[in-house]
Amino acid sequence: MPGLIIHATCVSCDAEHELRVGHGLGWAFEQHACHACRRLVSVAVAEELVSGPCGACGTQLEPWPVRAETEVIRARCPACLELTRWRVVDSDRWE
Ligand SMILES: [Zn+2]
Ligand SMILES: [Zn+2]
Questions:
Q1: Which are the contacts of 43, defined by CB distance < 8 A and separation ≥ 6?
Q2: Cα 77 to ligand 1 centre (Å)
Q3: Is 71 left (phi over 0), alpha (psi -120 to 50) or beta?
Q4: For residue range 7-46, what is the model confidence (pLDDT) as tens digits?
Q5: What is the pLDDT of residue 68?
Q6: How confident is the model at residue 1 (pLDDT cuts 50, 70, 90)?
């Protein structure tokens, strides 16, 4: 099942975020945030698995609701914590 790697910037603080969307057999990408790194982390989550700590700093990740529409993503920015729009800069397909 193909998915997308999306690069988006927060319109409030200009921070750039990378998120992965899509799913495979028995797993799906879910969006999480690390409050220490102030960045979004996409985690491949299987039904019986929960997200682990941040790969960069070891802080426990927190589920982070992100609404991805066609050109606009709505979410709270992990960098500036504004609930705002993210502008999609670029997206690549992954298989
Ligand atoms: Zn921001
Ligand atoms: Zn971190």
A1: 29, 30, 31, 32, 51, 52, 61
A2: 5
A3: alpha
A4: 999 999 999 999 999 988 888 999 999 999 999 999 988 8
A5: 77
A6: low
Rounded distance from Cα 28 to ligand 2 centre (Å): 21
Q: How far is the CA of 53 from the centre of ligand 2 (A)?
A: 8
Share of the chain above pLDDT 70, in %: 95
Ligand approaching nearest to the C-alpha of 41: 2
Mean pLDDT over residues 58-77, rounded?
89
- 55: exposed, middle or buried (Cβ count in 10 Å: 0-12, 13-18, 19+): exposed
Interval between CA 30 and ligand 1 midpoint (Å)? 20
Average pLDDT, the chain: 90
